[in-house]
TrEMBL record, chain A:
SUPFAM superfamilies (UniProt xref): Ribonuclease PH domain 2-like (SSF55666), Ribosomal protein S5 domain 2-like (SSF54211)
One GO biological process term: TRAMP-dependent tRNA surveillance pathway
Name of the protein in question: Exosome complex component RRP45
Region: Disordered, residue numbers: 332-380
Species per Swiss-Prot/TrEMBL record: Polypedilum vanderplanki
Record's subcellular location: Cytoplasm; Nucleus
Lineage, broadest ranks: Eukaryota, Metazoa, Ecdysozoa, Arthropoda, Hexapoda
TrEMBL record, chain B:
Origin: domain of life: Eukaryota
Chief site of localization: cytoplasm
InterPro entries, alphabetized: Exosome_RNA_bind1/RRP40/RRP4, KH_dom_type_1, KH_dom_type_1_sf, NA-bd_OB-fold, RRP40_KH-I, Rrp40_S1
RNA-binding recorded as keyword: yes
Species: Polypedilum vanderplanki
Protein name, UniProt field: Exosome complex component RRP40
Gene3D superfamilies in the record: 2.40.50.100, K Homology domain, type 1, Nucleic acid-binding proteins
An example Gene Ontology biological process: TRAMP-dependent tRNA surveillance pathway
Cellular compartments annotated: Cytoplasm; Nucleus, Nucleolus
Domain (K Homology): residue spans on this chain: 153-199
GO MF annotation terms: RNA binding
Alphabetical keyword list: Cytoplasm, Exosome, Nucleus, RNA-binding, rRNA processing
Cellular component GO terms, alphabetical: cytoplasmic exosome (RNase complex); nuclear exosome (RNase complex); nucleolus
Length: 380, 236
């Protein structure tokens, strides 16, 4: 989508309002927007919303050859995608900030990703897609990437002596979580007039001022990365002030990530995974010119019929299974009787034969499903 | 499936009422979201609510993309200037042209003083799928009326739906707000609203109240404005 030009009125208004310590969305200057983290049904997929900005992150893993300089360490690859352009400038900047914050701060225990030193290691791939940009994509993407990595679990594998190893399925051995030493979180401040920091800028605020400061901070108040754009800073006190504010915020964010992770694991134990559907806000139904609408009786009837129909199908399937089961039992009976009575009725024999065939097919199916479960991937 | 006025319609539905009116040799205008095929059947092409005003049928749908139509009043941002035209962004698929001479009292020598990035409240003069839309800042008598440059204030984007809603006769929001505080508003049907008031605080509050109106039914507008009034007294 092409970007609309920023009007002079908006620029002047935002600058004036910041001078009066006001923001268009009623926030304080150092206040962040509401953060929401929603884990998907799959391990390592997460949807993060920061105000109206939305980012989806997904972690996957593959077996790869390690770097020759670090033979006993796995690798992490981060890829950021924006839907509007293939490789825009902001996309590259965001990728680089995430790489510096997450990979270069060495928050992931890379040695635990090693399978066989110098030969095979796990390569974690973090795919971050920006779904909606309402400003401050970097923070949102960083939180998404970190929480996706914390949520991700890779399959277990066992090695035999002669360089072969088996990757086990989740049904055989429990998946292994990724080890994170610390959770680095990006905090973005937009700078107005080079001295007024605004936390978590919206798209409009980002466009009005080019100057920005992104700090990567973990919950132990350690700065992992620092990125500055636009007009360079004039006072060192400002960075100090911003980093102190960011450290406070980082603590809360990390706590929030951890608590959501715990809640997710509890839900998983109860096999009550909600998925992304909880991210949809149902109160925001757009009321149109029609204020209230009564549902047609027809619609209700249709839904009733539909639900009944579903039940019927389910019942009929169950009945089918039951019938087959009965048949298999009866075939064995028939067999016995046949052997004993040595085939008196021709009709009965044909029936029993057909039933026997059915039972054979069933047993075949059971065998094949067993095979699938036992199947393991063997890689050289 | 046949539908009637007031129903929720889906693309492919047939509007019998418009067809029968046309057969009686009465003039029928098909608005947004309706089209007639070769057999002179009126078919819905958008999902929404079928509405009728006098002899105009249209579908009121939720959308953010603006498709220019003649006589729409829109808010544009000046994108660039050429020898004879301003190129104006009006939130549609391409830039619209605004001739220098389409301002009140403008001549070849006396050009309007408008810069890149300024807001202009204007009318769509011509909209053809094969040409870029043409804008104008004067009415048929050559007077500017309410049109022209919008100075100061705050412009914000919203859904086209919301603009239609606040401009609807049934909607009392703007009237109720005017009782609480004086303000200026320009609503462009292209999904842009400009507001101005005596201070920044009030303007921000007005913006948030108008955006909130999208999710408020008509009969609850009074509560919305009451809340606005109480917040306004809290600030001043």
């Amino acid at each position: 989508m092409k970007e609309t030009i920023l009007s002079n009125n908006e620029r002047v208004f935002v600058e004036k309002s910041i001078e009066e310590v006001l923001r268009i969305d009623k926030r304080q200057l150092t206040e962040f927007r509401n953060l929401g983290i929603f884990f998907g049904k799959k391990y390592g997929s997460v949807l993060v919303s920061l105000g109206d900005t939305r980012v989806f992150a997904n972690v996957s893993c593959e077996v790869n050859i390690p770097k020759t300089t670090r033979p006993n360490e796995g690798t992490v690859f981060i890829n950021v995608e924006m839907s509007n352009e293939k490789m825009s400038e902001s996309c590259i900047v965001t990728t680089r900030i995430l790489e510096r914050t997450i990979r270069d701060s060495r928050c992931i225990d890379l040695e635990s990703l090693c399978i066989i030193a110098e030969e095979k290691v796990w390569n974690l791939r973090v795919d971050v897609s920006i779904l909606n940009n309402e400003g401050n994509v970097t923070d949102c993407a960083c939180i998404a990437a970190v929480s996706a990595l914390a949520h991700f679990k890779r399959p277990d594998c066992t090695t035999s002596g002669d360089g072969e190893f088996i990757i086990h399925k989740s049904s055989e051995k429990d998946l292994i979580p990724t080890v994170l030493h610390h959770y680095p979180i990006c905090m973005t401040y937009a700078l107005f007039k080079g001295k007024i920091p605004i936390a978590d800028p919206t798209l409009l605020e980002e466009r009005v001022t080019n100057a920005g400061l992104t700090l990567g901070i973990n919950s132990y108040k350690e700065i992992c990365s620092l990125h500055m754009t636009g007009v360079s800073l004039t006072s060192p006190f400002l960075i100090q002030k911003c980093s102190e504010m960011a450290a406070e915020r980082a603590k809360h964010v990390v706590e929030f990530i951890k608590s959501t992770l715990e809640q997710d694991s509890i839900d998983r134990e109860k096999s009550n995974v909600k998925g992304f559907k909880q991210s949809i806000i149902l109160t925001n139904v757009t009321s149109n010119f029609c204020d209230e609408q009564s549902i047609d009786n027809n619609a209700e009837e249709i839904s009733e019929v539909a639900s009944n129909h579903d039940e019927i199908i389910v019942v009929s399937q169950e009945q089918k299974f039951k019938k087959i089961d009965e048949n298999t039992i009866s075939t064995t009976k028939w067999k016995d009787e046949n052997e004993e009575t040595s085939s008196s009725d021709s009709e009965i024999i044909t029936l029993s034969q057909s039933n026997q065939e059915k039972s054979k097919v069933e047993s075949m199916q059971i065998d094949s499903s067993d095979d699938e479960e036992k199947e393991t991937i063997i890689l050289n | 499936m046949e539908v009637e006025v007031g129903n929720i319609v889906l693309p492919g539905n047939i509007v019998k009422e418009a067809e029968s009116l046309a057969k009686e040799n009465k003039k029928v205008v098909l608005g947004n979201g309706l089209r007639s095929d070769e057999n002179e059947k009126v078919v819905v092409s958008k999902s929404g609510i079928l509405c009728k005003r006098k002899n105009i049928f249209y579908v009121d749908s939720y959308q953010k993309r603006y498709i220019p139509a003649k006589n729409d009043t829109v808010i544009g941002i000046v994108h660039s200037k050429t020898l004879d035209f301003f190129w104006v962004d009006i939130n549609c698929s391409e830039l619209a042209s605004l001739p220098y001479l389409a301002f009140e009292g403008a001549t070849k020598k006396n050009r309007p003083d408008i810069n890149i990035g300024d807001l202009i409240y204007c009318k769509v003069m011509q909209s053809n799928p094969d040409l870029e839309p043409e804008l104008v800042c004067v009415d048929s008598t050559g007077k500017k009326g309410n049109l022209g440059e919008l100075k100061d204030g705050l412009m914000f984007s919203c859904t086209i739906n919301l603009v239609r809603k606040i401009l609807n006769e049934k909607c009392t929001l703007l009237h109720l707000l005017s009782k609480e505080c004086p303000y200026e508003i320009a609503a462009g049907i292209n999904g842009r609203i400009w507001i101005n008031s005596k201070n920044i605080n009030t303007t921000i509050l007005l913006r948030n109240t108008i955006l909130e109106a999208e999710y408020t039914p008509y009969h609850q507008m009074k509560n919305l404005v009451d809340r606005f009034a109480s917040e306004l007294t809290g600030i001043n």
